[in-house]
Amino acid sequence: MIHPSGAVTAVLTCRVSTDQAFRTRAFHHVLGNTAAAMLGTAFLWFGITFWAYLETRSVLATSFLGGAYMLGMAVLGVPFGSLIDRFRKHVVMVWSALGTAASFLAAGAVFLLTPGDVLVDLGRPWFWVFTGLVLFGALLTMIRGLALSTCVTMLVEPDRRANANGLVGAVNGMTMLVTGVLSGLAIGQLGIGWATTIGILVIVASMVHLVLIRIPEPTIVHADGTPKAVDFKAAWLAIIAVPGLIGLIFFSTFNNFLGGVFMGLLDPYGLELMSVEAWGILFGLSSIGFIVGGSLIAKWGLGTKPLRTLLLAAVAMWVVSISFTLRESVVALAIGVFVYMAIIPFMEAAEQTLLQRVVPLSKQGRVFGFAQAVEVSASPISAFMIGPLAEFWLIPYAESPQGRSDWGWLLGDGNARGIALVFVLVSAGGLVITGLAFLTRTYRRLNESYAAGDVNADVVAGTDLPGPDPLGKGHTEH
Questions:
Q1: Which of 19, 218, 289, 410 is the most exposed place for a label (fewest CB within 10 A)?
Q2: Angular region, 88: left φ>0, alpha ψ -120 to 50, beta rest
Q3: Is 0.70 surpassed by the pTM of this model?
Q4: Which has the higher per-residue pLDDT, 218 or 452?
């Protein structure tokens, strides 16, 4: 005979297990859908970057394109985050998908209506209109990435969030692998027209799938009122309420300032050493590093101090960045980019895990958006600066007899030694700053904030489960 209380416990256990399985399926659908959106966006954006450099042979063009993308992320981070906090995540993600599809379709129309020689003329507006429309669509996709971070908080159990963030990193790596290889092949073999068409088709397909997904979301009561459309104040107050959190954001900002240099110059460096097809394949295969790094986190987590993991990863990243351009070698470039990408998921997952633990869900959209806005704001500055500096000063200097005499002992010979000099100088600065970060009071305080407890421990338990499952096939309760 089963005691009544035992039967009730069994029923509750079964229901909790079923509900969590439902949330897990929903998370996997959202993750896959977001990956598909990033796939279409990155495929077209990588293709635009390759095409722009090959048609113009100007690092100014690639630097300005990369800088404009990062500037857009900085400007739109908080407004997009406020949208995520104001409305249900699924609704905002659908809006994002519609906007991206419309922008890409408009870019396709510009391409069809503009003669090729006019389209690649930097002195005319059509190059910038075409790339600007693709850029705007890519920025709208950013909403889905921000919403995914909040979905991890809603749909994943607290002690598994670091692993989930690692899985996100692995999926992002798989996306980069596919897009890196296919973008180079598409531009080299098919041209920018077919690349645009493929990008549009992938985005539309992901939009249809997104409409079918059902995401269980908690009913959030905003104690401080409904978020404003652009709520910088609330985001700032939520950040400074966590001791040490602003320091983490400033550190990431500095890293992104230096990262803007790589954003503007890595593609030109690779294209100086090999063909666009070969560079696309190499870059794509190197993206397996993302999969490796993310998979390691998904399996083992980040340890008890994610911030320490983040800083150690930053040290390793700058050491690698100094090393792989010291000689003009395709092998060294491939190994360096692979290891660099294997490290990045540790830094990204560590920051995501920290924020998901110490920031209330009701404010996470704004905080994620604010953090992204501040962190990436440095990249366009460095990208816009490094293009002219590299093209008009550092590259000519490094290739001059004086430059070869001054730096040849370190950088060797080759056609891309000017770009290599920039990489080495920037990485050395990053290594010094990262080492000093271990000694700061901010480092100690944020570790204490993380150890104090999870402010969202009860969020998953309070999630509203709708009737249908993530794809509308029915949800059964035991």
A1: 410
A2: beta
A3: no
A4: 452
